[in-house]
Every structure is written in structure tokens, then in C-alpha cells.
Design a protein that fits this description.
The chain has a single domain (about 1-220), classed as Lipoprotein localisation LolA/LolB/LppX (outer membrane lipoprotein receptor (LolB), chain A). The chain is built from 5 helices and 12 strands. It has helices at about 1-20, 30-40, 110-115, 130, 215-220, and strands at about 45-55, 60-70, 75-80, 85-90, 95-100, 105-110, 130-140, 145-150, 155-165, 170-175, 180-190, 210. A 12-stranded mixed beta sheet has the order 7-8-9-10-11-1-2-3-4-5-6-12. The longest helix is centred in the N-terminal third of the chain and has 19 residues, at about 1-20. It is globular and about 50 Å long.
Length: about 220
């Protein structure tokens, strides 16, 4: 369960920042203003990704790849396809985590999962300047980088770096509070294309174990 929650936290951070910070690389002179501008202009995002997690000493501890499809407001399909299969799907209200190999589905309320995380940026209701320190880090290895530092030190991550190449967000680096670093690289990117609404609907497969965290949360 800890491993699954770790992936959910990584996804929530990556997903929300991805949807809210797909900026034009040439417009980073005023990053806070550009973040707010892009939130209102972006409607969808699709890409293939590779995600690598490194430990405190720099050793690789996890390497996965998959596809991501995001649709405002708040809908997403984030699928790990290799070396194991896991899908995170939301219609904007409910989050389903389907561990295909384990034949298990965990259900959460998206609002509770996203509480106190960058997820609220996606709605456009957050004053970015009040929640993050945003810096333009310049160009390194043909990527232009900006950095977000959360003002709230109790968040799940200590810093996020966003890398832009050919006018698209092509990379993210997330630093969590236990010393691990997650590197996500995006390829074959498409923005503002129509995505079928069925992508964000989930029906429980026959024979899977279901863990409904909403019932546990309601009883607390």
C-alpha cells in the first residue's frame, strides 16, 4: 500500500503541475504570470512518458513508462505500461487506481487526495504567487528550466523543476521530502486535442479486489 500511495503522490504532483505549467518556452521572463495565463488556455495534454525514481545516494530504484491523457477540468488517465501495468483514472470527482497485475482497484475521493497539493492549481482558484516561489533557472542541455518551491513546507515535495524544449513541457524533476528524486520525460506530445470522454470513465473489471477508501475516510 505504501508503494501504491507513493505512486499516487508522484502522479498527483506531476499531473497537476503538468496541466498548470505547460508554458511557451519563450515567455518565461515572468513565470508566475505565464503560469496563470496558461491555466486558462490549456484544455488537454497527451504524451508518452518515462519515469525514473532515484534514492538519496543517486541509485535508480524504479523505472517505468506509459502514457498520460489529461482533460480540463480535472480529468486524467495516467497509465504505467512497463514493466508492470497500473492505471490511475479520474472523471474529476473519483480517482480509481487499478493495479492490473494484482487484480486490485483502490477508490479515492479526488478532493481528499489532492488536498494540500499542487492539484488545486489546475482549477485556477489558487494564487500561485501565494503558494509557490517561482524562478526561471535558465537554459541547460537545450532545456529551459523553471523551478517551483512550495511555501508550505509540509507538502509532499520540496521542489519541482520543469523543463521546456521546442515550446513544449518535455521534462519534470520532483524532489520529495525523504530525499528521493523523480525524473519524468515526456515524448510525442499533443496539446488541446479532443479526447474521448470514455477515456476518463472506469468500470470495475470482474473478479478484482476493491478497496474503497472513501468509506474509511467517511468514518474518520
Amino acid at each position: 500500500m505504501k508503494s501504491q500511495l507513493k505512486k499516487v503522490h508522484i502522479f498527483v504532483t506531476g499531473y497537476t503541475l503538468l496541466m498548470s505549467t505547460l508554458l511557451h518556452a519563450a515567455e518565461l521572463a515572468a513565470p508566475v504570470e505565464d503560469l496563470n495565463k496558461y491555466i486558462s488556455s490549456l484544455s488537454s495534454y497527451q504524451a508518452e512518458f518515462t519515469q525514473t525514481i532515484f534514492g538519496q545516494s543517486g541509485q535508480e530504484i524504479d523505472l517505468v513508462s506509459g502514457i498520460v491523457k489529461l482533460q480540463k477540468p480535472g480529468k486524467f488517465y495516467w497509465s504505467y505500461q512497463s514493466p508492470y501495468k497500473q492505471a490511475l483514472i479520474s472523471d474529476g470527482e473519483t480517482l480509481w487506481v487499478h493495479d492490473i497485475d494484482l487484480k486490485q482497484v483502490t477508490i479515492n475521493d479526488v478532493d481528499l487526495i489532492n488536498d494540500n497539493s499542487p492539484a488545486s492549481i489546475l482549477s485556477g482558484n489558487v494564487d500561485i504567487n501565494s503558494h509557490y516561489t517561482v524562478s526561471d533557472l535558465g537554459i541547460f542541455d537545450d532545456y529551459r528550466w523553471i523551478e517551483l518551491l512550495p511555501i508550505d513546507t509540509e507538502r509532499d515535495f520540496s521542489a519541482v523543476k520543469l523543463g521546456f524544449h521546442d515550446d513544449q513541457l518535455a521534462g519534470m524533476v520532483l524532489f520529495d521530502n525523504i530525499g528521493q528524486t523523480t525524473v519524468i520525460q515526456f515524448e510525442h506530445i499533443n496539446q488541446n486535442l479532443t479526447i474521448s470522454p470514455l477515456t476518463f470513465k472506469f468500470e470495475l473489471p470482474f473478479g478484482v479486489d476493491v478497496i474503497d477508501m472513501r468509506h474509511i475516510q467517511d468514518s474518520e
